[in-house]
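[Help] Beginner question about ligand-bound structures

Sorry if this is basic. My supervisor gave me a protein sequence and a SMILES string for zinc ion and asked me to "get the holo structure". I don't really know what that means in practice or what format the answer should be in. Inputs are pasted below exactly as I got them.
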Amino acid sequence: MDDFNSETDSDYTSYWRDWFISSRGNEYFCEIDEEYLTDRFNLTGLNTEVQYYQYALDLVTDVFDFDCDDEMREMIEKSARHLYGLVHARYIVTTRGLAKMLDKFKKSDFGKCPRVMCDSQPLLPMGQSDIANTSSVKLYCARCEDLYNPKSSRHAIVDGAYFGTSFHNILFQVYPAMLPAKSQRRYEPRVFGFRMHAGAALARWQGEQREVMKERLKKAGIETGFEDEDEELESEMEDEEMEIGDGFEPGQPGGMVDSQALLHGRW
Ligand SMILES: [Zn+2]
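Answer (accepted):
No worries, everyone starts somewhere. Holo just means with the ligand present. The predicted complex, written as structure tokens, is below.
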């Protein structure tokens, strides 16, 4: 390890981290710089969270030199993976970490939104808690602003705390150009081509509320974030409807309605 160069980790082969990020199931992780890992300040407090902390850190930084049996080695290995994850959550909100995750986002390494109206919007990994062992990693779509379970079962067991609750929001704050326009298109339930009356009435009411909200935001000088109005949307509203079930009374929302949900045309 004498020739290790912290300036450019590209010409330094990190054996353990290379192995880790190229392992199946670890596709969401980016490689943490040697420099970041060896700065003790960045690891503050983790020694109490990770068993065999020093050995685990030695393993992650490729300076592991400890003769132990397989069982012990396996435990240290497990700790090393946990340590890497916890440091990863801190690293990906740094300038360097954000840039690496942005590259992966652009390549759709985290998958694409399964919602048809989101047009294959790339997703970002996120955690619902910053505390380890609380919940597994979820995927965030910035277009519909919703969360999804990873498709593959090998990702469903990755801890969400290894990405954290803030990373995906920080990424869009730092790179606002990456924020996609909100889609106004929605699925409309139809029966034999006829729009269902209840659903159509509700959709129309929501559409009107959204327009009111957009107008208010515009007056307040706030960017709505919506894509340009689709002209088809207006004409489709004039379509015939079919009475099925109890009609929704426009203007009678029946209780509180979340303004954000309304703005995006969802409940
Ligand atoms: Zn989406």
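A couple of things worth pointing out: Residues 1-11, 231-238, 245-263 have pLDDT under 50 and may be disordered. The two ends are 57 Å apart (CA to CA). Feel free to follow up in the thread.
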